[in-house]
């Protein structure tokens, strides 16, 4: 979506915008970073050798993504972009629900009496 929005933008329209500093470093190519411009790293992903902790981390990540899409929708003035963001936001809600179901299954398994 981001590439589609900028692929045909002339350099004159990019100058004197917040996108200009990004363009100087990366052109119109995608370069994963957060809103402050810090590059994405694997340190953004948290994991433990504990399925309950990991599922809680997944649940939190889905809610953070949903909130980010809502903030983007609030500042979008392009109907096509807004529709895409709404779809992506709803996808995060479904992911959250599925992770919640997985958490219930794991907790039920752990709480089940074990017979050996």
UniProtKB/TrEMBL annotation:
Pfam families: Mn_catalase. The keyword Metal-binding applies. Binds 2 manganese ions per subunit. GO terms for molecular function: metal ion binding. Keywords: Manganese, Metal-binding. The keyword Manganese applies. Mn(2+) binds at residues 62, 95. Belongs to the manganese catalase family. This is Mn-containing catalase. Its cofactor is Mn(2+).
């Amino acid at each position: 979506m981001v590439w589609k929005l900028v692929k045909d933008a002339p350099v004159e329209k990019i100058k004197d915008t917040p996108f200009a500093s990004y363009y100087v470093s990366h052109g119109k190519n995608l370069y994963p970073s957060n809103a402050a411009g810090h590059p994405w790293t694997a340190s953004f992903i948290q994991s433990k050798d504990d399925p309950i902790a990991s599922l809680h981390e997944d649940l939190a990540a889905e809610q953070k993504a949903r909130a980010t899409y809502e903030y983007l929708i609030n500042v979008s003035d392009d109907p096509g972009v807004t529709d895409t963001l709404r779809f992506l936001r709803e996808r995060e809600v479904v992911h959250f629900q599925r992770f919640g179901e997985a958490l219930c299954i794991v907790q039920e398994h752990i709480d089940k009496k074990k017979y050996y």
